[in-house]
From TrEMBL:
Protein's name in the database: KinB signaling pathway activation protein
InterPro entries in UniProt: KinB-signalling_activ
GO biological process: positive regulation of sporulation resulting in formation of a cellular spore
Keyword Methyltransferase: no
């Protein structure tokens, strides 16, 4: 991937994250009323804060994406392709189980229901994104996409889960998953264009 292609992907993902955070933030404000505005300045500045926060989330997502690409490259180089696929399946399942159960039973967290809902939502989104990726590329993309959307996304959101605030979790997780889905679904287009040129 050339620097030009990477910068294009970076800027587009930045925009996706900013817009996703703006929409999620406005919906949360509309339905939960988390912030009380004291004047018009607050009303005008709030969308800018949401856009900036979304841009930061997208950068965080992109760090995870390039860490995944490096990990995948190393995994393919060290293990046979079939073995690396089994390892990815095991790691994805372990990450999902850790998200859904480990924090409650070992960490003493009392949010089992929220963790189950979040885990199931991530699983559903991962399956949908993997289906779209396979449809636009080939069947070999199924397991790496599931691994990225489940294991890497869960590693990325661990920090926000420790805050324990539902709105903060929703505000970070939704744009992060959208950015991750966007990157993994457009990667083959970026690399194909590079191969053609």
């Amino acid at each position: 991937m050339s620097l030009r292609k990477w910068s294009k992907l970076f800027l587009k993902t930045l925009l996706v994250g900013a817009v996703a955070a703006l929409i999620v933030g406005l919906i949360l404000q509309l339905f939960n009323g988390g912030i009380e505005f004291t004047g018009w300045a607050d009303v005008l500045i709030y969308p800018l804060i949401l856009l900036g926060s979304g841009a930061l989330v997208s950068v965080y997502s992109q760090m995870g994406f390039f860490a995944y690409l490096t990990l995948n490259y190393m995994g393919i180089g060290i293990f046979r392709r079939k073995t690396w696929q089994y390892i990815q399946i095991v790691l994805a399942v372990l990450a999902l189980l850790e998200l859904m159960f480990f924090r409650t039973f070992v960490g003493g967290s009392t949010s089992l229901q929220q963790d189950l809902i979040l885990g199931i939502a991530i699983l559903i989104i991962a399956v949908m994104v993997a289906y779209l990726k396979v449809k636009s590329t080939n069947a070999n993309a199924w397991i790496p996409t599931l691994f990225f959307m489940m294991a890497i996304s869960i590693v990325e959101i661990i920090g926000v889960l420790q805050i324990g605030v539902s709105n903060a979790t929703i505000f970070m997780v939704v744009p992060l998953l959208i950015c991750n889905a966007y990157q993994i679904l457009t990667l083959h287009k970026v690399t194909q264009d590079e191969k053609k040129s």
